[in-house]
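The instructor's notes for this session suggest beginning with a concrete chain rather than abstract definitions. Hand out the sequence below and ask the class to guess, before any prediction is shown, which regions might be ordered.
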Amino acid sequence: MKGPRESGAPAHRWLTRSGTGWTIAVHVQPGAKRSAVAGMHGERLKLKIAAPPVEGRANAAALTFIAERLDVARARVRVASGERSRDKLIAVDAPECDPRRLLRSEE
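After discussion, reveal the predicted structure:
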């Protein structure tokens, strides 16, 4: 019997390699005191975002936060699905970046 890594299952279910980069499954909590990664929410990466869920401000702040943490241009990060939901799929069109960096604690 094979273990999860031997069977080809991903080590991080919130993270999927796509043809143009990565897809990140996130759960966004808007209106936080400051923007930060808050661990896991089920099988999604939880983001606390310091912007209100009004007129797309939380989405924009989440995309900017991810782009900055991954050191990629903001134009390469977009909401692939879940525009009006807390559960979103974020596409990062930067195959060279390592989204697991999002889990590292902020300094």
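Then share the key points. The longest strand covers residues 22-30. The chain is about 15% helix and 35% strand.
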